[in-house]
Protein 1
Amino acid sequence: MIWYMITQNVLHRPVRTLITVIGVAVEVALVILVVGLTTGLLTESAKRTEGVGADMMIQPPSASIWAAFSGAPMPISIAGRLRTLDYVQAVAPVLVQFNSVNGLDLVYGIDPDSFRAVSGGFVFHSGRDLQGPDDILVDDVYARAKKIKAGDPLHILGHDFKVAGIVEHGKGARLFVQISGLQEMSGAIDKASIFYVKCDRSDHTPAVTDEIHGLLPGYEIRPLKDFINMMTSSNLPGLSAFINVMIGIAVAIGFLVIFLSMYTTIIERTREIGVLKSLGASKGYIVKIILSETTLLCLAGTVFGIGLSYLMKTVFTSLFPAMTISILWKWIVISGLIAIVGGLLGAAYPAWVASRKDPVEALAYE
Amino acid sequence: MANATRILLSSEVRSPAREPALEPILKTENLWKIYRIGKMDVPALRGIDVEVFPGEFLSIMGPSGCGKSTLLHVIGGLAQATRGRVLLDGNDLTTMSDSARTLLRRHKVGFVFQRFNLLPTLDAYHNIALAQHIHGNGFDPHRFEAVANLLGLSQRLHHRPSELSGGEQQRVALARAIISEPKIVLADEPTGNLDTKSSESVLSLLRQLNKDLGQTIVMITHNPEAATYGNRVLHMRDGMVVNGASVH
């Protein structure tokens, strides 16, 4: 009976219902998309790093797991010393630069031969490998996003490159240039940011790690197996705080929407509350009606919000092909719970006010 | 109502539908209700003594502002008395908490209001069923059917209040009031918003409920003709019963 009454109430005021549902949907979509964007960024970045094909990566002491933040403080000569270690099959020095022109992208400065030895080489969609300091390789995702093809010019890092080839994505970065040229452009002569190390067999990785610890004490040696699990938002400074702030804003939106909606509702329905009281409805019964209606609105908003998230994901990824948004079931459930709990908190005061209305005054309400 | 024009005074009590029991189902003793408006105390009820016996149909008359509705609210447990006692089926409302009075209303009182007060979002069927739901004894289809038939609502149950005439709405309100078999029905100007024909219909139904089912009814009205449908009439003025009962 209560649910029938609530459903009729909700349907009886379609505009209010629609606005409330949209408010909750925006809250849910905001949470899902913010987390989806950050998770997508992390996952995609981790997958690309894993995709290099190395067994481990070496970074300077105290370097961030985010290669773009680490600069280039290691002498490239370390590569030669690493190659002398037992079980080491190949070492690829990489200089990482961060390009912020027309987007945010990592640029890998590589030595084509050593990078091929570690990664097994690029899969070319078109064009050829790097041959000169003005050549650049771009992956297919970047090429699709920027609508460029082999032979096109590309201006990044203050330099005019020529797109030598389009390669399959998933090898660390989306843009690759020769390391020597990038060293000159960035003033990091004979420096590298990362050494990718490939062992002759994967089960030798621990032994090689021990060797490198001896050779380069204090350096960060990160195995790339299960690298995805290490790429969490807590490893990126400020990202967790950003996510929490965005979730907080989303909860505040939902709270206020529900608060205003339910407060308006109980004022509109003052006389109905008086009628319920005259029939002997307890305070608990009235609170239950208000909170049940809130739950229904929040559930509808959650469903709408999930749909909105998928719609926005489709729109964003078609507009920005390089963008990755990972919509996770875990966060769909969490966002729904956040919406419902926030909504119930927002409805708590209106429900309390409704339950305490004087029945005589309520019945006389015009 | 042309054939029911004579005003009955309280001293001219008709025989109620059933012989009154010795114990009144409703009794007020020196009942006061004082409203505080700003810094002024405004007495709405000033020492009311009333007894209503099971099976009675009592009409209470009086001019606007004489305290009729306040009396109905207090004896129905919607408002708390300032002084005195209200005994409803042996329960002293003046000593009860708000929650206890709510429970008492649920089980012992049925209200009928001048403005019908049906929930606009529900059809007639659910407006009536809602009272059963709040009552908490579950839906009784036999009782429901009997009440709907008695009040001539069987064909109108799936219409919302906005689709019903005033008379039909009041019949739905009446059905809602009696569906849970209350000890007493309190009707506050039940014909105040109705035309003559609908008023006659509703009043006839009230009398029928009283006679056939022995339903105890207290009805407030300022219409002398409507009052004649009751077994007994009390007159009120300035918060006091001025005819038919003792006055403090």
Protein 2
Amino acid sequence: MKKILLVAQREFLATAGTRAFIFGVLVTPVLIGAMIFILPRMMHNAPPKVVGDVAIIDPTGEVAPALTAYLTADQLAKRRDADYKRLQEAMPAALRSSGGSRVDAALSTALGEVPILTVVSLNPGADVEAAKHPLKAVPGKEAASANRLALIVVSRDAVVPDAGTGAFGSYQIFVRAKLDDRVEEEISDGIRDAIIGARVRKSGLERTRIDTLTRIDKVTSRTVTAGGEDRTNEVLNQIMPAAFMGLLLVSVMLSGQYLLTTTVEEKQNRVVEVLLSATSPMELMVGKIFGQMAVGLLVLALYLGLGVMALLSFASLGMIDPTLIVFLLLFFFIAYLTVGAFMAAIGAAVNDIREAQGLMTPVMMVIMVPWILWMPISRDPNSVFAIVLSFLPPVSSFVMMLRMASASPPPLWESLLSVVVSAAGAVAMLWFAAKVFRIGLLMFGKPPNFATLVRWVRMS
Amino acid sequence: MPDAIVLKGLTKTFGDTVAVRDLDLVVPQGALYGVIGPNGAGKTTTIRMILSIQMPDRGELSVLGHRSAMEAKDQIGYLPEERGLYKRMRVGHFLAYMARLKGDDGLDLETRVKKWLERVDLGDVANKRCEELSKGMQQKVQFLMAVMHRPSLIILDEPFSGLDPVNQRLLRDLVLEEHARGATVLFSTHVMVYAEQLCDHIVMIHRGLKVLDDTLGNIRSRFAPRSILFEPLDAAADAGALASIPGIAGVQQDGEAWEFQMAPSAQPGTVMQAMAAAMPPSRLELRRPTLEDLFIDIVSGESAEAGTLRAAVREHGSAHAGGRA
């Protein structure tokens, strides 16, 4: 046991003590956090203020005045203000209170600066093709007066229906290249509002009355739990299963990959024969697996800790059932032992890392299945497909984690049965790996295939 | 006191190739054994089986009184032929780690690591990464790794390959020190000079078979000298004419020297007297076969003597092993 711990300690320090690990695993989350903080500031000044005119050919004579009123700077500012308040209300309370001025800045950025738009009413009989010409001007290279942003052509029957068919006409909009989509949206909204207003007026109805009757504010549901009730967080509900499975997959695959690399290196460096003169192959393999398991646990603890902190800041920690974390750890050990044993066997069998890729590809594709299918599995976690996968090692641990973190978790007995089946898979893989490891470590030459590995297992 | 190593009928095959065939060997405690043989003879496989790194297909073995080296790994020091170090690890840490793996975790380990490094003129490399060392330096570090924990049995596979003459001498002295301390030493080599200089017992393996197993003294006495080295006083003289002297079976010139093969029935004293009388010599020497001669004879398998030698060795070797068993 002492030798196993010595090997494990060296394995852990040789991996977790490297600059590549510290940068890749520890610094990356910090960088992501920093980017989240810095990006909004960089983006704040990004969109330039839009100044220009919107031409309209309005044969009805009813739409242009309403569009002019809609696109005044005052009206634009008012609507921005309303949107801003709506976004603020939709935001979780914790983020709103902790974010402070940064959140305000981010919201302002999302909405953009208020554009200065001038509506130019063209002669109803004007040539449309000639009217489009100013749109072709290159922005900034022409005089300010030539800064045409859009041309709207309203149909003759847009306000009063065609006498023959009884159908309303519509409008056409032509815009300059690279026009800010928010400005285009404002113009489209304005013309639609102006046409509807004109139609209502012509029909002898009262616009404000219709607006009042057709308006219902959107509401969000509230989730009721034993601990009380809170607004349903749909985004977190969707992310949670993927987050748990992703955490499991990343920590297992990362440490498994490290195990493969260090085993191949030991074989390539020929240090393995020296080690085998001091330890048994089993002690060496188990020590290496334990060492990289500690690396995986470190990664898991780090990212889980970050996740818990993020949930704390959203005041949504209650969303996580503590048993879920217990099962996460349990499935980590099982999945890691399965994948780690396989990686150790491959590392011992091959001559270099390139040869390892050939043997790993089919197995990696199987392990990635839950990741590819996370959406259908998390939407319907109790489908026959999901249930079958959650009892099939080596993917069982990942799929069961996905199901358990979903909105409709499986019954406890299914989770426990999955643990037992997955653990049996891990034991079988360890048995296979121990045999391949012992023979493979001192085998050099022709790259092995799966048939060779099976022959080695029979030999030993 | 049990023998350090006892092998009985050890056999190992790889596919269709028999690497070691029915090998019997007894190495007493405190002995210094040299295992010689050409490349691919089965030396490394034999050593790996002794160390339980590879398992024999057939046969029995005992190492330091245990049925397997697994039970005595901490008492064994091993320098493999395929040298290996953790490239990124610091030299001092590597040696301490390997010593701990061998069960040596005394409080003074760090100090001893430094002392050993100084002993092999590497006092300033403890904090360097292994990959920063030259090949020769790496080999010395690996040798330290094999002896630092004061093992009872030291197995060295081709310990002198890749070393310059100064370091070969240093390593040879260290091996002799360890032997003088009481450790049993078994080393393999195909550099016969070192086997002759160091060992008191030679085992030769060829194509998986043991073809020689005896003390160096016995080998020398059993294989009587059968050739005479002659250098004429007058360097221009044609010494080839001496081939007509009765008892001379053949002659070969090598620069200024001439090597005369004696007929099996010839008396060396009579032949040498006749040669000196016929032509004044600057050098006249009865040449003993070196280990290298025996080695080449057996490996080439062409000479009639090689066949006789092999038969004699087998007879003697089995008697030797039988006596021990």
Protein 3
Amino acid sequence: MSWNWTMADAQALLPLMVVSAAAVVVLLVLACCRRAGVAGILPAGETPATRIGAVLTVIALAAALALLPVAGAAAPRSVTFLVIVDGYGLFFAGLLLSACIAVALLGHSYFRQETSAGGEFYVLLLLAAAGAMTLVFSRHFASFFLGLEILSVSLYALAAYNRASLAGLEAGVKYLVLAASSASFLLLGMAFVYAKTGTMDLGRLAQLLNAAPQPALVTVGLLLIMVGVGFKLALVPFHLWTADVYQGAPAAVTAFIATVSKGAMFALLMRYLVGVNFTLQYPLLAVLTAVAVGSMFVGNLLALRQENVKRLLAYSSIAQLGYLLVTLLAAGPGGRELAIRAAGGFLAAYFIATLGAFGVVSLLSSPQREAESFDDYRGLAWRHPVLAGVLAAMLLSLAGIPLTVGFIGKFYVLAAGVNANLAALVAAMVINSGIGLYYYLRLAIALFTPSRAEPPPRVAIHPAGAAVLAVLTVLLVAVGVYPQPLLRLLAAVVAL
Amino acid sequence: MPLIATMPLWPLVAYFGVVVVMVAGILALSWVLGQRRRDRQTGQPYESGMVSTGSARGPLSAEFYLIAMFFVIFDLEAVFLFAYAIAYDRLGWAGYVEMLIFVGVLAAALGYLWKVGALDWGTSRYGKGRLPTSAAGGGDSTRGKS
Amino acid sequence: MASISVESGLILSAVLFGLGLIGVLARRNILFILLSIEIMLNAAGLAFVVAGSAWQDESPTVAASAAATEPTTSVGGYKESTVPQADGQVMFFFVLTMAAAEVSVGLALVLRMHSQAGSLDADALSRMRG
């Protein structure tokens, strides 16, 4: 099978190539400067490896972000039968790359004092970013699987990255065992589907699903694939790992798992399931509906009594993904455009608020001590007024309070649900928004209640992390008050 | 698979039979001809050598795990080289460049491992004072053995 | 030699997969859990090889027709060819590679478990609750 590269192919793949090449370059640079001892030039307390790694990583990610419009000029284009670069993919790639930049900066401020940790954090981060982008652009089982695994394997190491922490090790081992098992479910499902249909092309499969009800083997295969996908999205009943991994991993990595890893997987799922006529695929519809409702209720109910902030955010993210699934079910043959716009808006809002919330946790934590219990946050408004305000804003956005971007996202999802006459799902979502309000506000109020206990040690806020939080907060309010630019971007994405 | 499909099956069965008969024969002959005695040292390993001490299940040096990891990874990449070798002429220059990138990434990873000190054995790396500190580079190996 | 049907191959791989899954659920030693995961992955790989052998004589018209029905996307510079599909086998390569990557990260974590937790028991490591 011969295939010739054209300039347009290279142009379309440019962002992905930049990120992948950056991973190799950063790896080599780290290997060299580990011994070279550039320490004299740099401020005390920061190891050269972490500083150089952080700078190179952010430059590479920003370059990839800037190259997205260039790639967009060649879109829509499918490069080999594995990868498709189109407006939809580019929008989500932009979202993922921005989140990766935020995570890199948060990680830098988290690990800055850690002399034993080299800069490998950034190599793993770049690899994970490349995997996530591959997922978003993939149109074939092979690229789907490869993207997923590049993402997952980097995340095992990232979750256990904190060498001093036993909880981090537990998080890494748990994530590895469960992610590897779920990946094998996914693979078995793919093999079943391929055995029956003879195609691994995702677009072709979506067409087959739309054409007629499928034989049992294909349905079983699709459900097995959904196990792998559901695990990655932490949907009920595959959510059991979420709280432990979120709690054990360094806060910056947790932010990555909650946003980039989930966002990339959802973008892929959405791309191929959004147009499917579910009335022909009844088992799939029933399973997805049950999973959506279950995720909302289980996530929110488990978060209610939670005394650990990282676990609370973990359960809240399960519920948020439940809301997001509504857009998928709302699509149907007619509502494709609205559903994609709703999902894009909701995911953008979720990214901003989740990165912000975990960003505050990350800035208050250090590799020696994670600030995760409620006591660390009681009375935060007196110790770090700005951080307390930022965290409160993020929580209000997650709860979907008006004038925050979270409201825009949730409103969009509800509109899509109502438009598709999904009464039960919309009702579940409204009930759960009520439940969610309780625990988001519980944490937000705790920030402003004076604490009688001994205050935790004051931490210095690194400028990189502070800058990330500032940008996120501005976006949160600006888009919440004036959402038109985001809506126009989403409309353009659907059109491309 | 025309080659396999046309080959007769009986030589394999005959071979299997010959092996079974031969092994059984050797065992039976040595049982019939050999002498039997039951002394103090008979049941021990190294009957004629040193007396063994301690358990055979001692801890392995953690560095063996490192070798295992490197082997598993680098060995498997050869699979792709073989796959490319079969079709190199049909893949043309594009395939050649892709393989170059592939091997280049592997070489970069090897270079990284080398620089980090993961390929140093024994005690030499303590002397040079460059303990590997990466999560991937296996700095734990130094403390992993008990 | 009689050929083996696709269904029996898939059943075999499903049985293997089940064995691996039981291992993951029942074993407590992390090394055996990793071993069981390898069995699950290889079972899925076997299923791919079986599925691939079922479609190996098919020329890649499926992909071509998929491209034809998507007018917005052009499929690079692919030429129609009569090379049989090897997709199943190729996926098996990927599965193997990924299993290797997974097991080496797994072994690195095992080393840390041994040195930090002093045990390879998965339950001994489990401390987080709530």
